[in-house]
Amino acid sequence: MGKIDAEKEIKRIKERNKRVEADKAWETSKTRKAVIAVLTYLVIVLFMYSFGIEMPWVNAIVPTMGFVISTLTIGALKGFWIKRIYKRN
Question: Taking a C-beta distance cutoff of 8 angstroms, is the pair 31, 23 a contact?
Protein backbone atom coordinates (compact mmCIF):
# COMPACT_ATOMS: atom_id res chain seq x y z
CA MET A 1 0.00 0.00 0.00
CA GLY A 2 1.46 3.35 -1.02
CA LYS A 3 1.61 6.53 1.01
CA ILE A 4 -1.33 8.04 -0.90
CA ASP A 5 -3.44 4.90 -0.39
CA ALA A 6 -2.66 4.89 3.33
CA GLU A 7 -3.62 8.58 3.63
CA LYS A 8 -6.91 7.92 1.81
CA GLU A 9 -7.61 4.99 4.09
CA ILE A 10 -6.87 7.05 7.21
CA LYS A 11 -9.15 9.82 5.94
CA ARG A 12 -11.91 7.29 5.22
CA ILE A 13 -11.58 5.80 8.71
CA LYS A 14 -11.67 9.24 10.34
CA GLU A 15 -14.84 10.14 8.39
CA ARG A 16 -16.43 6.84 9.42
CA ASN A 17 -15.50 7.47 13.06
CA LYS A 18 -17.18 10.89 12.91
CA ARG A 19 -20.38 9.30 11.57
CA VAL A 20 -20.28 6.58 14.25
CA GLU A 21 -19.71 9.18 16.98
CA ALA A 22 -22.63 11.28 15.70
CA ASP A 23 -24.90 8.21 15.60
CA LYS A 24 -23.87 7.28 19.15
CA ALA A 25 -24.46 10.85 20.35
CA TRP A 26 -27.96 10.79 18.84
CA GLU A 27 -28.75 7.36 20.30
CA THR A 28 -27.88 8.51 23.81
CA SER A 29 -29.22 12.07 23.53
CA LYS A 30 -31.97 13.47 25.72
CA THR A 31 -33.51 14.99 22.59
CA ARG A 32 -34.02 11.54 21.06
CA LYS A 33 -35.53 10.22 24.28
CA ALA A 34 -37.89 13.20 24.50
CA VAL A 35 -38.99 12.81 20.87
CA ILE A 36 -39.67 9.11 21.40
CA ALA A 37 -41.63 9.85 24.60
CA VAL A 38 -43.79 12.48 22.87
CA LEU A 39 -44.45 10.26 19.86
CA THR A 40 -45.25 7.31 22.12
CA TYR A 41 -47.68 9.47 24.10
CA LEU A 42 -49.44 10.67 20.95
CA VAL A 43 -49.76 7.16 19.53
CA ILE A 44 -51.23 5.89 22.80
CA VAL A 45 -53.66 8.84 22.93
CA LEU A 46 -54.82 8.06 19.37
CA PHE A 47 -55.19 4.39 20.23
CA MET A 48 -57.22 5.13 23.35
CA TYR A 49 -59.31 7.74 21.57
CA SER A 50 -60.12 5.33 18.72
CA PHE A 51 -61.37 2.74 21.23
CA GLY A 52 -63.44 5.27 23.16
CA ILE A 53 -61.40 5.14 26.34
CA GLU A 54 -62.28 8.03 28.62
CA MET A 55 -59.77 10.84 29.10
CA PRO A 56 -57.14 9.48 26.69
CA TRP A 57 -54.93 12.57 27.22
CA VAL A 58 -54.64 11.71 30.91
CA ASN A 59 -54.70 7.92 30.69
CA ALA A 60 -51.91 7.85 28.09
CA ILE A 61 -49.48 9.26 30.64
CA VAL A 62 -49.13 5.99 32.57
CA PRO A 63 -47.97 3.73 29.69
CA THR A 64 -45.80 6.53 28.32
CA MET A 65 -44.05 6.96 31.66
CA GLY A 66 -43.57 3.20 31.87
CA PHE A 67 -41.89 3.30 28.49
CA VAL A 68 -39.70 6.26 29.47
CA ILE A 69 -38.64 4.60 32.71
CA SER A 70 -37.80 1.39 30.86
CA THR A 71 -35.60 3.28 28.39
CA LEU A 72 -33.78 5.01 31.23
CA THR A 73 -32.95 1.71 32.93
CA ILE A 74 -31.77 0.02 29.72
CA GLY A 75 -28.43 1.88 29.87
CA ALA A 76 -27.73 0.66 33.39
CA LEU A 77 -28.73 -2.89 32.50
CA LYS A 78 -26.59 -2.77 29.38
CA GLY A 79 -23.56 -1.71 31.43
CA PHE A 80 -24.17 -4.51 33.90
CA TRP A 81 -24.60 -7.03 31.09
CA ILE A 82 -21.39 -5.95 29.35
CA LYS A 83 -19.40 -5.95 32.60
CA ARG A 84 -20.71 -9.22 34.04
CA ILE A 85 -22.02 -11.39 31.20
CA TYR A 86 -20.37 -10.33 27.95
CA LYS A 87 -16.83 -10.32 29.37
CA ARG A 88 -17.15 -13.99 30.20
CA ASN A 89 -17.48 -14.96 26.53
Answer: no
